[in-house]
Design a protein that fits this description.
single chain; about 130 residues; alpha+beta; Arc Repressor Mutant, subunit A; 4 helices; elongated; Helix-turn-helix domain-containing protein; WH_DNA-bd_sf; WH-like_DNA-bd_sf
């Protein structure tokens, strides 16, 4: 079974509607899994996010992590400390979560002087199941 997802890396507002997959603002994300017929999975395109299981997808895109992505989009914090004050999490815990999300391309962490500035790279998701 292969799970496919599309991620919109552009900032979105609540009034935005789902855009066509052919628009350049979407990038293709493939979540890996085992196909019933054992055939090769579809090619992963540029900007893809691969997960070995659906449970790992659920962990990465948990309610709390999606809330963090929304906070990043809305607040555009200038540091992890500023984000920590808004979400109620301690900086070390927040840093671990954001680094994990950065590994999937959902978040970008930039060092600016002594601060780390987090920003959301994807905030809206459409998951397509085959």
């Amino acid at each position: 079974m292969i799970y496919r997802s599309q991620c919109n890396p552009a900032p979105m507002t609540d009034s935005d509607t789902c855009r066509s997959p052919v628009q350049s603002t979407f990038r293709r994300c493939v979540i890996g899994g085992e196909r019933k017929d054992r055939s090769a999975p579809p090619q992963v395109t540029e900007g893809a996010i691969a997960f070995s299981t659906l449970s790992s997808l659920a962990a990465v895109l948990s309610d709390e992590n999606r809330r963090l992505l929304r906070l990043l989009r809305e607040l555009q914090p200038r540091s992890l400390t500023e984000l920590s004050e808004h979400c109620g999490r301690k900086v070390p815990s927040l840093s671990r979560t954001l680094r994990m999300m950065e590994g999937y391309g959902l978040v970008e962490l930039k060092r600016v002087g002594a601060s780390v500035v987090p920003s959301a790279m994807a905030t809206r998701f459409l998951i397509e199941l085959d």
